[in-house]
Amino acid sequence: MKTLVLAEKPSVAKELARVLGSPNKQKSYYEGPRYVVTWALGHLVTLAEPEDYSPAYKTWKLEDLPLVPERMKLKVIKETSHQYRAIEQLCKRKDIGELVIATDAGREGELVARWIMEMVHWRKPFKRLWISSQTDRAIREGFEQLKPGEAYNRLYQSAVCRAEADWLIGLNITRALTTKYDAQLSAGRVQTPTLAMLIRRETEIRQFRPAEYWTLTADLGSFQVQWRHRGTNDARLFDQEGMNRILEKLGGKPARVASVKKTEKAVPPPLAYDLTELQRDANKRYGFSAKQTSNLLQRLYEQYKLVTYPRTDSRYLPSDMAATFKSRLQSVQTGPYAPIVRDLLRKPLPITKRIVDDSKVSDHHAIIPTEQPLLLHLLSTDERRLYDLIVRRFLALFAPPSRYDQTAVQLEIGGELFTASGQVVKEEGWKAVYGAAGWDDQDEEDRDPNAEEPAAVQKLPELTVNETLAVRKLNKRSQMTRPPARLTEAGLLTHMEKHNLGTPATRADIIEKLLGSDTIERQGSHLSPTGKGWQLIELVAEELRSPELTAEWERQLEQIAKGSGAMETFLAGIRREAERMVREVKASEAVYKPHNLTGKKCPDCGEPLLERNTKRGKLLACSSRDCSYRRDAEPPVSNRRCPQCHKKMELHTGKAGKYVQCRRCNIVETLSSEARSGKASRAMLKEYTDNKPIGNSLGDALRAALEKKE
Questions:
Q1: What is the pLDDT of residues 511-560, one digit of tens each?
Q2: Segment 261-272 mean pLDDT
Q3: What is the pTM of this model?
Q4: What angle do CA 502, 500, 305 make, to 5 degrees?
Q5: What is the architecture, at CATH level 2, of domain 2-145?
Q6: CATH 3.40.630.10 assigned to 162-206+487-587
Q7: Are 615 and 609 in contact (CB under 8 A)?
Q8: Which is the CATH superfamily of the domain at 275-397?
Q9: How many CB atoms lie within 10 A of CB 119?
Q10: pLDDT (mean) for 2-9
Q11: Active site residues per annotation
């Protein structure tokens, strides 16, 4: 009998088949003496749509809501049904005796496989491959230590609960809002409280009123000291007259050293990366979106096999992995990492609780390099940047603490308190791993914008208590308080993690969903709500705006996965919430006004047109849900150059067909079918070379294209 292995993607199936000795490639699977390896294409099976329960639900009607089926149905996704049918036929083969689930080792991966198994009515034995990297060694060891499939039943139940909760809440509230207000309004279990976080930050910014304050520093020659309020230790004074009185009081008086305190500080290395922490760092350092980081990381894991499982929420490593640390360091001992690794391997590696802690490892450990040989030249620039973050964080784990001497000095000038601090680095320690790039773990938007700015590091002279120093100059400075900063993706990920909104695997998709629904937008590196987002938050139930409710749901899902929660209890609560939230929408007297209405009318139905931002640029779409009219807000630009100014000409469609027009010179030229299809012909070559003696670039390009073709 043979074993059927179900991977999540064709690329993973190909690698599994190679390692397992199944070289015979068929259209939808690989086969060998012992294993038949096939693949899903992500989800092949999903929850049924409302119209699958009743054709009447295909039309969205407020009176049909809420939709709360007693038992949720499954359906095969039409677009990938060919692969599902292939797996179904494999499952029916009489020579297949058992199944190995080899989808991604996580909640979603479990759901991908189990729903397929449920649809094909799999009743034979099954096991689970649970590995944290895609190297040949990890695959072989994983198949030698397959887990009983039933051991992951609770994880599957948690995944089903998550999927059904998103359907019950998201679908019902989205349909209710959309039909009630005749607008495309999308809400969800996680995306709505995430939007509410951005709304709250924007509200703080809009309500902020600046206030003027003053600070005072004293120049003592070799260093400077800062005035402090004796009661609050605040360096700011919001009373200009009060600051002027202090200045008069201090005039010509020396500074006396009141106290000197020296302490040695030791800063341990940062913990290893989980997915959210890596997304934050990649956003701060390189401007990567959370989704971009996830995609890059998946390639490093799946295609290059250079890193361990990406979608993890743990920042620790298991004890049974400690024996591999040396070989993992040796695998990255190349390029810029070689001298660092050589230094680390000169002595035994320090294995501490900051690195290895079994009690803090969940389904997967932290993200670290594998033992796969490193070939940096194969990576793209962005792949290399992300890999560099992972490698340097791993190397830093084994480096010594960063040590420095901290000196804090208090002085008195005319009875007023002044302070200064200085640092002397004794040992860079792990910070040397980051070299000239330096290390910064501060989220700018999470800092109090009105907190005292970090003082420049000074080298203080040797000082003794009661020593007096001459004051060379007093500097009064006026400043204004500042509003909180808008959140970057790094900051939003921090807040989502803090409030337990979503999982490391889903947070990037939630942000992208909000961007795609036009409820938030990117403004440079920051995120802010749109007019649509502001109104949406006012229309949804108050509980759905709160991260506390969603965080409680996530906590219950985690309990179900660990065996301490009940699936039935959770889903019963979700059904009640969906029904209550729909009732609130129905009873609401709120009014929705589209924020992006234009003064233009739809040529098909006469309703106003909405302006939307898309990846292709601005788009005009009909505001009526029953009308599908849409067009580009601005004419697309062709590759045809104006014969007069040589700028690219706009592409238009008229009664006689397509034509190009130069907005600057108002020159119009028709486009033949050959020009529209992009084919180079002798007639076009003649037209653009012989008849137009302006040496235009299109003629040169056509000539080159023909010469290459011939």
A1: 999 999 989 999 999 999 999 999 999 999 998 999 999 999 999 999 99
A2: 95
A3: 0.83
A4: 55
A5: 3-Layer(aba) Sandwich (3.40)
A6: no
A7: no
A8: Topoisomerase I, domain 4 (1.10.290.10)
A9: 17
A10: 97
A11: 309
